[in-house]
From TrEMBL:
GO terms for biological process: DNA-templated transcription initiation. Residues 14-75 form the RNA polymerase sigma-70 region domain. PANTHER family: RNA POLYMERASE ECF-TYPE SIGMA FACTO, RNA POLYMERASE SIGMA FACTOR RFAY-RELATED. GO terms for molecular function: DNA binding; sigma factor activity. The keyword Lipid biosynthesis does not apply. Keywords: DNA-binding, Sigma factor, Transcription, Transcription regulation. It comes from the Bacteria. Belongs to the sigma-70 factor family. ECF subfamily. This is RNA polymerase sigma factor. The keyword Transcription applies.
């Protein structure tokens, strides 16, 4: 495959790749970034493409792997409540950083609120904070995946409410 044929085939898949990127990211800007990164990698590693193999599958695999690697990188740096529409965010760090004196009481209140939850909510939520994925929690607790997701969601709402009441005192 010549450089021109390669570039033509790559550009011919652009719209389909963009649609696939949207299905992976559910966000237009992130999909554009993923598409751009995928096309750059395809051009950079053109020599790795094996002649007479499925070009489309090769490109889609690059995109999928790029998405997975970005997701894993972002999970390591995520906040506990990333997608919250409220002004209230809890940041839990796995690093042992000594808190400022005025924030120490807040941290105690947060942990106290978590400890006061019923086991059915506290255990999955604590596992989630410890870095377990929803699927891992579901398997460990022998619960359906949807149940785990809803319990974590409702726990967030309960904590948000109890800690919001605390901040208004």
């Amino acid at each position: 495959m010549t450089q021109i044929q390669f570039n033509s085939a790559l550009l011919g898949l652009r719209d389909k790749l963009h649609y696939y990127a949207l299905s992976l990211t559910s966000d237009s800007e992130r999909a554009d970034d993923l598409l751009q990164e995928t096309m750059l990698k395809a051009l950079t590693y053109r020599d790795k493409f094996t002649q007479n193999t499925n070009f489309k599958a090769w490109i889609y695999t690059i995109m999928k792997n790029t998405f997975i690697n970005d997701y894993r990188r972002n999970v390591k740096t995520r906040n506990t409540f990333d997608d919250s529409n409220n002004d209230f965010h809890l940041l839990f760090s796995k690093d042992k950083v000594y808190p400022a004196p005025d924030s120490f009481y807040s941290t105690k209140e947060i942990h106290k609120s978590i400890d006061e939850l019923e086991d059915e909510y506290r255990i999955p939520f604590t596992m989630f904070l410890d870095g377990y994925k929803y699927k891992e929690i579901a398997e460990e607790l022998e619960l359906p995946l949807g149940t785990v997701k809803s319990r974590i969601f409702f726990t967030r709402k309960k904590l948000e409410k109890s800690l919001h009441e605390y901040s208004n005192n």
